[in-house]
């Protein structure tokens, strides 16, 4: 009987590991895809200035509570590309939604640090981003990518 319990516990642990692994699996888009006019992506440089954790109903919960999403207030530094839905920016600040399962993949946003963020703006003018988009600290963006972002290099979208 004891070996059966050990077997069941082992299976449950294995399923948990598989679930965490799958949470980080997706086809990340390239900078070329993000910046190509054929894609409906918004690409910005911004700094996180505050964060709130949200439950499934969208209500703010305690910082230590389990929550599926985070709502960041972001300071817009630069817009590289806009999608078809405009990002709502008031006094240089916009809202970004971010699934907290991104923490499982090692992605967290540090307050007051600049990031290049690729996402999709939804009907309410809120930027949504996740691990399958691109979120990269500005100090990790290489010169070639900076050239693409600033429009100094041409992007060939014919193969997309």
TrEMBL record:
Keyword annotations from UniProtKB, A to Z: Disulfide bond, Metal-binding, Secreted, Signal, Zinc
Native species: Sinanodonta woodiana
Official protein name in the record: NTR domain-containing protein
Pfam entry (one): TIMP
Keyword Endoplasmic reticulum carried by entry: no
Domain NTR: residue ranges: 24-157
Gene3D superfamilies documented for this protein: 2.40.50.120
Subcellular location as annotated: Secreted
Gene Ontology cellular component terms for the protein in this record: extracellular region
Disulphides: 24-105, 26-132, 36-157
Residue positions binding Zn(2+): 24
Signal peptide positions on this chain: 1-23
Location (main, coarse): secreted
